[in-house]
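Newbie here. two chains, one complex. Structure please?
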Amino acid sequence: MKSYKELSREELKRLQKQLSKAYEEAKGKGLKLDMSRGKPSAAQLDMEMGFMDVLVSSSDYRTEAGLDTRNYGAMDGIPEAKELMAQMMGVASAEQVIVCGNASLSIMYDTVSRSMTHGILGNTPWCRLEHVKFLCPAPGYDRHFAITEHFGIEMITVPMTAGGPDMDMIEKLVAEDESIKGIWCVPKYSNPQGYSYSAETVRRFAALKPAAKDFRIFWDNAYAVHHLYEEEQDEILDILSECEKAGNPDIVYEISSTSKVTFAGGGISALAASRANLDEIRKSMTIQTIGYDKINQLRHVRYFKNLDGLKAHMMKHAAIMRPKFEAVLKILNEELGGLGIAEWTNPRGGYFISFEAMDGCAKKIVAKCKDAGVALTGAGATYPYGVDPKDSNIRLAPTFPTMEELEAAADLFVLCVKLVSVETLLESRRQMEKKAC
Amino acid sequence: MKSYKELSREELKRLQKQLSKAYEEAKGKGLKLDMSRGKPSAAQLDMEMGFMDVLVSSSDYRTEAGLDTRNYGAMDGIPEAKELMAQMMGVASAEQVIVCGNASLSIMYDTVSRSMTHGILGNTPWCRLEHVKFLCPAPGYDRHFAITEHFGIEMITVPMTAGGPDMDMIEKLVAEDESIKGIWCVPKYSNPQGYSYSAETVRRFAALKPAAKDFRIFWDNAYAVHHLYEEEQDEILDILSECEKAGNPDIVYEISSTSKVTFAGGGISALAASRANLDEIRKSMTIQTIGYDKINQLRHVRYFKNLDGLKAHMMKHAAIMRPKFEAVLKILNEELGGLGIAEWTNPRGGYFISFEAMDGCAKKIVAKCKDAGVALTGAGATYPYGVDPKDSNIRLAPTFPTMEELEAAADLFVLCVKLVSVETLLESRRQMEKKAC
């Protein structure tokens, strides 16, 4: 394939005409497809129908230690659920874990909220400070950025690389600026790029020397067991152990959930941290809740039995998801490979493919897709404040549609990418000619 | 029975000796009983074992409108759960309701927390104000008071009467003091007295004219359907409708849950409020959560079907709980009736009996019970800051123990009440004689 940038103006114009015609035809089809969010498909959900039937008789409701999960008590989670979640997250000990409700997002929101109103380990509550800032590796997860924006926390973008965020920049910033209180991380199969942090990155995180004593790494290990392949699985170091070794035990909160293991919204979530951090959080939890849903915690333990059970289960998800990723990647490769107008990631896990269009093209591509009936994540969503400075990143979420829908959506997507790219190249040629005159 | 106050010093001394001996004997029995918290008994929990089996096939997981409850979506609750909770709370329309997670306590905590960080309907966030105060009808619910204390909100005690809190005092205080931002209420079968607010009380609440625009009534309708008797059931007016009629639609948040309907910790909770309040809360919810556990919401709807199903179910609870309340009340009547040393309430619903000892006796009674192996709610817990100014109120929670345990606990309790009362009377006689000298 010839790169679009090498095409003459006449060639580009011919191509534009062709592509416009194809786009108008596609529009006429009345598509209604959704590649916008990382949602499990119906096939994935149907697969776990046995999940609801694992608790049946009244003795089933008791933990190994004899606690009745149907009653009050065990505010920070039943022991066997702590164990399962510790294993899932790759945390050394269940004592480092508390198990919460159905959404890890709530753990993160509550943690930021509590830091605002009560501060962390004796430090000034953030709501009393003039400036509070967070570092935001980007492209990243829009809902992380939404939390910090909601609380009026200033966000500073940090570029991502395939081995994790730019650590030189992070080390420098946190050492200099006491108002930097946190950083959002998705260390494994990152949202949206599917990158996993290298051992060096994890160790440099663990060894950070922030000016702020209440600086915290929000380590959202959302895709800890969400591999797409049986072989070739990414693994990351256990951040809690590394922080301990580095003499920095309190610097990190690790969060995860089973929303994309069992049911989205019907799973359980967990927080892993040092004893000092957990003790502080438990104090606040006794005020906030009478305890989370322990029946659902026990249900998870009974269904998976152990980490092996959980891993085997995740391979069933992979069997459904992998062909979808591969289908989208195949279309991207065949249709856009060699054209010099886009790059994309090739993740081995997680829920997304990250797509880089030419600068200034992302919004137009998403808008064109929308007009033709294909919903994508809003352009800019992967950056703080919803503003992608280069307007180039698009997050593709291939899991929810059926295979047929997905292929139709991807076909339309590449068509829009081509059309917007050609139009942009033509426009930039016009601008250059103008300047030349 | 002769009132203790009419007994001579010699008679009191003889009685003290007798009671001390009986107490020492009781202590020797090595009891280990718990009347401290409003927990359902195992018998109540076993009764709902069919609850877990109502969702079985994959089509079962869809709402009437076809939404798959196993996936993301319907952040503020599925329509049929809103309907059920509206009916349970006695709220006119399901549109006034959002359905949340497993704990109404979390709704209340989150609402106060959000008011601290973001303010209510455009008013200054409470964390930026010098003084924030709450009115606290007492005796009341310790966990309410714990939330306001946690956020550094000053608590002002308002006396309770059988028809609700002292409305004269409330009307005056809220009209005068702009820093009073809220009041905690348990309007039906109040915790711990089991009082229900009269129609006049509800109407006066609805018609309040607070100085603070962001004053809110936290209407914790925790025991909306928790009657002990088939006949003789308390009913209260719908506060939301009354507030609307009074031109005060935004003044109230009503909260409830099914923690004591289905499973403690495994239920669903709901918040009812005006459109303006709910819209504001929904905005914040989209940041805090991806949505609550909709599978559990649907499970509740399928299990109860409608309000009649739910009411019938609550009568099964009553059948187990009523004999326990009656057993405790019988022992109180037989052992303490006419002695002039105590009063207690005779509730028709809820989870508690409120006991008034002689002034200065509550702490000693609770300590004596504890020493002999019977756990009661801490004396003072029913007042703000855990300080009962008269040290007289004790909350009795008869539901959790078996009947046999309960009778043993109540026997010990009345023994301790008598002993502490006699000792207190003897001490006050001594003090009076001293003064006379």
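Moderator note: The mean pLDDT of chain B is 96. The longest strand of chain B covers residues 154-161. Thread marked as resolved.
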